[in-house]
From TrEMBL:
<comment type="similarity">
    <text>Belongs to the UbiA prenyltransferase family.</text>
</comment>
<keyword id="KW-0808">Transferase</keyword>
<dbReference type="InterPro" id="IPR039653">
    <property type="entry name" value="Prenyltransferase"/>
</dbReference>
<protein>
    <recommendedName>
        <fullName>4-hydroxybenzoate polyprenyltransferase, mitochondrial</fullName>
    </recommendedName>
</protein>
<dbReference type="GO" id="GO:0016765">
    <property type="term" value="F:transferase activity, transferring alkyl or aryl (other than methyl) groups"/>
</dbReference>
<dbReference type="GO" id="GO:0005743">
    <property type="term" value="C:mitochondrial inner membrane"/>
</dbReference>
<dbReference type="GO" id="GO:0006744">
    <property type="term" value="P:ubiquinone biosynthetic process"/>
</dbReference>
């Protein structure tokens, strides 16, 4: 996922804000992977729901990165 987002950013000529957000996205996903307790449904749900915020953060990075170009 991360390599795909970086490649998309390069192809779209994104700027620093986009890549800064990608750093946060990578940290968030890494944290989810290492702290997931697959035997606790409530923990799985909590991590699933947090991906909504991850998507919003990524969207913000795209918008700010495009505004930074101008």
């Amino acid at each position: 996922m991360m390599s795909g987002l970086v490649l998309a950013g390069v192809n779209a000529e994104q700027t620093l804000p986009y890549y800064a957000v990608l750093t946060g996205v990578a940290m968030h996903l890494t944290n989810q992977i290492y702290t997931l307790d697959i035997n606790k449904p409530e923990d799985c749900w909590k991590k699933f729901v947090s991906n909504r915020n991850l998507g919003l953060l990524l969207f913000l990075g795209i918008v700010v990165g495009n505004l930074w170009k101008e």
